[in-house]
Amino acid sequence: MGIGAAVVVRNARGGVLMVRRSARQFGAGRWCFPCGYVEWGEDIREAARREAREEAGIDVAIGEPVHVETNFHQPGKPSVGVWFEATMVDPSAAPVAGDDADAVGWFDLGSPPPLAFPTDAALLAKLARRA
């Protein structure tokens, strides 16, 4: 079973940063929080930080976990995902797509784009209830 790490980055208006998955990825053309698998020997928080850099071109400070979920979106490849609250080290930086993403965007909690993972939908609903 794999372990995934994701970041939940918010802007001043309460929007969340999401990336659109590229053609070679599961869920291609759909959106998700910047995320990816933890590599062997890598700390899960460092994995979350790395994924933010690779997929959205931003450096983040990792905060507390905001969601933990078992992912069953790929048959035969279950994983456990951990989503961390994160803040941009440079709030004026402009996110830019890279690595496994082909676009980035800020979205309202209640108006997300088409999502790649049902677990992200559950997290967005949870965050909207708290807002």
In words, what does this structure look like?
The chain has a single domain, classed as Nucleoside Triphosphate Pyrophosphohydrolase, CATH 3.90.79.10. The protein has 2 helices and 7 strands. The protein has helices spanning 44-56, 118-130, and strands at residues 2-9, 16-21, 31-32, 35-37, 60-71, 79-88, 101-107. The strands form 2 sheets. The chain has a 4-stranded mixed β-sheet. It has a 3-stranded antiparallel β-sheet with strand order 3-2-7, with no helix packed on it. The longest helix has 13 residues, at 44-56. The mean pLDDT is 92.
The CATH architecture would be: Alpha-Beta Complex
Q: By CATH's scheme, which homologous superfamily applies?
A: Nucleoside Triphosphate Pyrophosphohydrolase
Q: What's the structural domain tally? A: 1
Task: Specify the helix fraction band.
Answer: 10-25%
Helical run tally: 2
Mean pLDDT rating: 92
Spatial strand order of the main sheet: 4-1-6-5
Short description:
With 131 residues, the chain is α+β, with helices and mostly antiparallel strands. It is built from 2 helices and 7 strands. The protein has one domain (2-130): Nucleoside Triphosphate Pyrophosphohydrolase, CATH 3.90.79.10.
Keywords, please?
131 residues; alpha+beta; Nucleoside Triphosphate Pyrophosphohydrolase; 4-stranded mixed sheet; 3-stranded antiparallel sheet; 2 helices; 7 strands; globular
Give the SSE layout.
Layout: E1 2-9, E2 16-21, E3 31-32, E4 35-37, H1 44-56, E5 60-71, E6 79-88, E7 101-107, H2 118-130
Parallel strand pairs: 1-6
Antiparallel strand pairs: 1-4, 2-3, 2-7, 5-6
